[in-house]
Design brief:
Strand content: 5-15%
Largest sheet: 5 strands, mixed
Number of helices: 9
Strand order of the largest sheet: 1-4-5-3-2
Number of strands: 5
Distance between the termini: 7 Å
């Protein structure tokens, strides 16, 4: 499991100048050769910088779900109440506006339970322009599963509420979540059911994610 600190290196103006200096001092290069080498080095430098940036802004699931973003055994009356309660922490933490919660409920009323992805699991989300401020996620484990209207996958016990700011930034975390649930040998949901504290649940997420990405 790589962290930003492990993968990072200084992408600064000085760093680029340090790379260009030996090229500029190479007396064997004519003007044309010098320009070609500089162009190549600059392109390579910014491509590496962009790759690092992509790694930074596309976090792992466990980075989105520390213990502070997990609630266990919450009691809800129905699926609307479940979305309200699972979204409230994101609202209070400044990740979403109130209208984002309303949009999630409205979309399910309009399109059906498309957020139900697996037996017992829903990932509510709305369009980024519906009031998402920054990317985040909140996990709520319900005390008593509720029905979302999905014949195959009801009732729902785990709600991973996603605040999506675009179509790309959350993809790594989302893909890891799908993999962790899909692979029976990981026992992800079974382990989450046994977690007795948010800290325990966060540790389960990090350990299971490490298993599927390594």
């Amino acid at each position: 499991n790589h962290t930003y600190d492990q993968e990072s290196r200084a992408f600064t103006a000085q760093d680029l100048l340090d790379k260009l200096e030996p090229i500029l001092r190479d007396k064997n290069l004519d003007n044309e050769g010098l320009i070609k080498r500089i162009r190549l080095e600059v392109r390579r430098y910014f491509r590496e910088a962009q790759q690092l940036e992509n790694q930074i802004i596309s976090p792992y699931l466990h980075q989105l779900l520390p213990a502070s973003h997990i609630s266990l055994d919450i009691t809800c009356n129905d699926w609307r109440d479940a979305i309200q309660k699972s979204s409230l922490p994101l609202l209070e933490l400044g990740y979403i506006e109130q209208r984002y919660i309303e949009a999630m409920i409205c979309d399910i009323e309009k399109y059906g339970p498309y957020v139900v992805l697996f037996p017992g699991v829903a990932v509510p989300h709305a369009s980024p322009n519906s009031g998402s401020i920054k990317m985040g996620m909140y996990l709520t484990r319900l005390a008593h599963p509720v029905v979302f209207g999905s014949e195959e996958n009801d009732p729902i016990e785990f709600i991973f509420t996603l605040s999506a700011v675009d179509r790309k930034m959350h993809l790594r975390a989302f893909a890891d979540l799908i993999d962790m649930i899909s692979k029976p040998e990981v026992f992800f949901l079974e382990k989450l059911k046994k977690a007795d504290t948010p800290e325990h649940a966060a540790a389960v997420i990090e350990k299971c994610e490490y298993e599927i990405v390594n």
